[in-house]
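User: My collaborator and I are trying to settle a disagreement about how two of our proteins should look. Neither of us wants to argue from intuition anymore, so we agreed to look at predicted structures for both before our next call. Could you fold the first one, then the second, and keep them clearly separated?

Assistant: That sounds like a sensible way to settle it. I'll keep them separate. The first protein:
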Amino acid sequence: MTNQNGGGFSTAGGEKPVWFETLFCRNERTVIHLLCLFVAVRLFVFCAGFPLFSSVDEQAHFDTVYKYARGYLPRKGVDLYDPGAAVLIALHDTPEIFGDERECPDGKVPPPMWRWPPSKVETVGQTIILWQKCLNHESASPPLYYGLAGAWLDLGRLSGQSGGSLVYWVRFFNMGVMVFLTWYAHVFVRRHYPDRVFLRFGVPCLIAFFPQDIFYSMNADILSAPLFAAALDRLIRVFSPECRKSDVFAAGVFCAMALLTKLTNIVMLPVILLAGTMAARTPESRRLSVHRCLAVFGMAFLIFGVWLGWNEAMLGDWWATRDKMRMVGVIERPVTDWWRAPVLQPHYFVAFIWETLISFWRGSFVWFGKTIASPSMDVFYAISTLLLVPIGFREICFRRKGEGTAMDRQAGRMTGWLLAGVLVLFMGLLMLLSLRLGYRQGCRAAQIHPPFTADGRFMLGALIPFAIFYLAGLEALTCRWFRCASPYLLLFVMVAGITCGEVLISAHVFSSPYNWFHLTMDAPFR
């Protein structure tokens, strides 16, 4: 299924490459390295600029990382916050996330606890005790991110980090993840669409500027995009004529790693079946596809099954979700009541699509109880996605006959259909969760969340497939339909606008006295 000819466009006129495309082809590796450097700097600035702890349960994620750094394994009776983590959370938590701005005199929040005088030590101690009594609903979550971040935390301790700097050190782990994702996006496109020069540059460029705020927080979702892309890449190789045994092994390992990062990555299992089905065109290829599917499934479950077995033995729950759902107020609807789910109502269904798309782009951080967002940017994210992704799907999956050899076109179409399947399956999973799950009346989550699951971060495994279709649509729209502008120019304008918009809506956050920059200036008080 590996595509050797992408049949992309060169310019609006289609005659000669534009000067930037020629420059990029001559210096491709250098350009990608510069993008990786940029994303590292960008992630550092935003991770340091946002105070601790974000609205996406960052306290719970940090506590779990802290426990894993001390050799924690999920088991009954260890859901309370670790005393060491409770101290760091109490001292560095900010009231600016869910607090009421009207309660702040002259618009100023109280000083961080690390600045408090000795006379208030008792109050600090009471806050620490309260955190130690809290239950952590993330304690039994899939372990891969927490294990890696825990090792990174230990490395920070060895390098002399402590206090709030150590907490931010865990956040800075995201820099390496995003650098790898940007680089791997280029590898993925170059491997499967080598002749589409615009995609080879555009996909890593879009990811380097992607405004999803979950990458500025401690959260397991940050690993979904690179691991899912790596699993998908190896899976395409498994069902190609060039398949080797090492490809089957790698595909199974990466699938298991994606599942051990986030349970929503279970979408990978039907993707395996979809890839095998598309590769089965003759009786002989059908037998081979079945064998390869079983081999990948077997390798994935050999690893993932260890975690499932541990959960059943230690928690009495295969998926380790029962206690988490109870803590956050989530209830399961009987199958017979699915038809009553709010998401099936027309206005809620439209809201589900809209909220999923915009939260996929910009995340869901809040500041003083309000989502950090720009209505105009949200409209751009949703409308451009609804317009460009279908055009990109048509361009990738229904190529013109004159582009490349028949084998190349077939490989490109199969890869495109598989990428499209990933997007559809992720959306389908969120819809299924919206039908199956709801919030208990009276709980806090029911008051701040819509009555459906529309959190785009659960779809981050589809980030590279999304970027491919989105930019293929942009390229087709400019080069084939209108022929009025260069896709490179529009991409530059778009990422510049996204970055400016992100900086503008986050400017007030960067002035917080609780962020890393102020923490560094107050180093003697840490």
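The second protein, kept apart from the first:
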Amino acid sequence: MRKLLSIIMSFVVCATNAANYLTFTAEEENSSFNINVSGDDPDVQYSLDEGITWTPLKSFIRVKLENKGDKALLKGDNPSGFSTSNKHHTYFEIEGSIAASGSVMSLIDGNGESDKITGDYCFFNLFYNCTGLTHAPELPATQLTSSCYYGMFKDCSNLTEAPELPATQLTSSCYYSMFKNCTRLEQAPKLPATNLADRCYTEMFMNCTSITQAPELPATQLSDFCYSDMFNSCKNLTNAPELKSTELANGCYNNMFKNCSSLTETPELPATKMSQYCYSGMFEGCTLLTKTPKLPAMQLDSCCYLSMFSDCTNITQAPELPATKLASFCYSLMFNNCVNLTKTPDLKTTELARDCYASMFSGCVSLSEVTSLPATKLQKRCYNSMFYGCVNLTNVPELPATTMEESCYESMFSGCTGLTKAPNLPATKIARRCYFSMFSDCSALSQIQDTLPARTLAEDCYENMFENCTSLIKAPILPAMELTKKCYANMYRGCTNLSEITVNFSTWEYSNSPTYATFYWVENVAPTGTFICPVQLIEYYDDNRIPQGWEVKHQNVGVDQYLSEKDWSISITDLTIYISGARSKIKIFDVAGRLITCREGGDEVQISLPEKGVYIVNVGTKSKKIDL
């Protein structure tokens, strides 16, 4: 019997030696581990005696490794996978300091010999937040599944070495966040894969602050978001890998090197056809970059260069941008806060797209020269905040556009405190918020065009346009005869030296809306000045109407003259008035400035009024007061 037992024990030892079990070795006394099961309950067993006896490991059963060097072998029979989804997954929790070795595949096949992962999310978050893990186990699989290693070592802040990754054909999200926040990991593993998949490397080494060199990336055919955020916030990365592909995919390099503040050179980017988000945020926050790569692309796509060099504070020169037809958000925030950039590249294209230049150079405080902007047909928010906060910008190009879209110039030069002269704005048909805050906080601005020519307004069109322009003395003439919602709201607010305003509207009211069209538009302007307006405009004095302490003049000096009038006359019979010789529209207002009626002119026009009282009759540029 004793001889038989010895033979059995020898067989067990040989079998154990032949297997490649996942092994946990204590690197300090009183270390321990357990599994946490969320949903599924996989088969897991452990052995503390080199595989002679095995004990089922259930959720929250803590296995103690009391002495340094103590070992635990682990295996399982889970042919469908260890975990099955991001909601149903099993993961280890470690206390103390433990080094893993052997093959993780022993949790699948019981002996660690398999090289084929079964089931999506197989090892999802397996060692997530195991700050006591100092060494990773072997990952021998060459056949992967979707999300199989997703977050596997995420937040393992004491992991110093990554395992080999031999797979050459990847699957969607297979390495997603695999080593994210492994702040002591000094070297990335080789990545031999040539067949990529969507999001395969997304966030793989994000915030691995000890990595100094990236591995080679041999794939030439990319997939959507394949390298997105791959090295984001790797603050000690000094060299980027060569990126050979000329055929891009959506988001392929999105945020790839974002906040790599030690990166000094960029790889070449030879692609001539862009995809959505392909380069967005690619080098954002790379503060040691001094040069940009050539960007030869002629065919753009939405958001392709979005924030590409944002916060690259040492870049002094922008690359050429040869595309002649733009895409939505294509250059938005591209050079945002590039504080040493002095000149814009040529922007000669006339075919714009929505948000194409939005915030492109915002915060470029050294920018002093802007090339031409020749487009005559604008798109929604195309120039929104384009030069916001460019405090050294003193001259700006002509803006010849006559076709407007919503918010097209919104905040375009806001905060340009060195700007002294505004470009002419020739559009006569405007759009909602088209000039919103366009020159707000331009404290040196003193020269503007005589007249803003639009006669028909749009909602919020001039809101905050010249707010806090403290050097502005005379406002442009406003020839529009009727107001609309918030059209002039806050327009001259804080213009402390403004002392002349000329308007052509004859009533403060519009469309029964409770919101002032001129809400706070003259708050904190000069204490004295001249307000020039039609005679029928009622004289209200406050921050929303006519500035307190200003003189009112009832004339249209400087306002384009409308149809000239010969003498016209009024006769009255009871509540009916007869107007002869009017060649323009006839408008009748009460003493409060409210429009009572509007009629077409003619040789003799008969109008009945609702009750006795004082009225103002306006024809063209002339008004007469009548008392019934």
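Some points you might bring to the call about the second protein. Residues 1-15, 556-566 have pLDDT under 50 and may be disordered. The helical segments are 2-18, 106-109.
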